[in-house]
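Write out the 3D structure for:
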Amino acid sequence: MSKDKPARIPTPQPVRGTQDMLGDFADRFAHVVETFERVRRLYGFKRIEVPVIEPTAVFARSLGETTDVVSKEMYSFEDRGGESITLRPEFTAGIARAYITNGWQQFAPLKVATHGPLFRYERPQKGRYRQFHQLDAEVIGSDSPLADAELLVFADQLLKELGIAEGVTLTLNTLGDAASRDAWRGALVEHFEAHRSDLSDDSLARLDKNPLRILDSKDPRDRPVADSAPDIDAFLTGEAQDFFGAVTAGLDAAGVAWQRNARLVRGLDYYRHTAFEFVTDRLGAQGTVIGGGRYDGLIEMLGGPPTAAVGWAAGIERLAMLLGDDVIDNRIDFVIAVEDDGLLALAMRTLAALRGRGFATEIVASGSPRKRFDKAGKIPARALIAVGTRDGASYFNMRGDSELTVVADATIRALADH
């Protein structure tokens, strides 16, 4: 009588829209983060950490109940206490909440930066995931156009340090101050109402709540109406014109190239003045790699005092995809091949000494001693050290980077003498 085979346990699969990273892309991802951390220190931005989960109201208020992110894309759930909790879909709202609840007004103007995972339930595509990662930089508590300019120069230098600035264009627009925006909004509503029959269903839904968003609609039916809509320039107050002029003058002084895009908008009412995107055609339809703007009304909307603020975010995956093949050097500094087990102790002391001096070092000391050199040679390293004996005498053969081999030789001789 045969025994029944135990049921095969199904292998767990990753959640759709998430990714596991190993090797080259993980190194690219890390390189983007490391470069961001280095550049943000140059600009005096403090590191900030905020929770991955927030009360749903933080995002519902800040992103607008009618936006696709809130209505369709947020990962929200009720916790055991009955409170509605949301996995953060973006950084700015959580940072604004932290600014209010921690009383960080005393540090204004506050320059902060962070990076980490975000979550949106949307259709996965090239460079876009349901768990994705962003860099984020914010200046809170400054109403100076120089804050906008500094953030943009920061972003421009980040792209240059990553070696991906070529082919990426900074596009810039002004949304004006409150008076400018209200006047423009009224003119847009009048224009779109006159062409209701030509608009898509999505744009008709936006007409009452979010009419500015019709300007950047991707639906071909909307483009003729959107393209013929009035620009904001006719409605800018003198103060708003001066603000935008100061931002662009700061960019010109810093040598940052930019292009005006009068159709670049932010639909929510708390956005003011500067709106910008760094765009490329190297990622297909998803061409924005850094985007942001000034959001002077957000903190007040969340219950804080009126507070000027401006910031940007950048997709880490997208930046990593733009990196050239020669940007990442995966080589370690040394690999040690132990060809005689009698010298293992010396090789281990050498390994510890080199690592102690800050050199990335690996050791090959298992398997057939005859094959260890060949095995070590397959590990990407700037220098290879072979440790063995010949005719009763120990030998140390080194090849590779001349400066490193000198270091290794001196290290081994000092250890051997002791």
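The radius of gyration is 28 Å.
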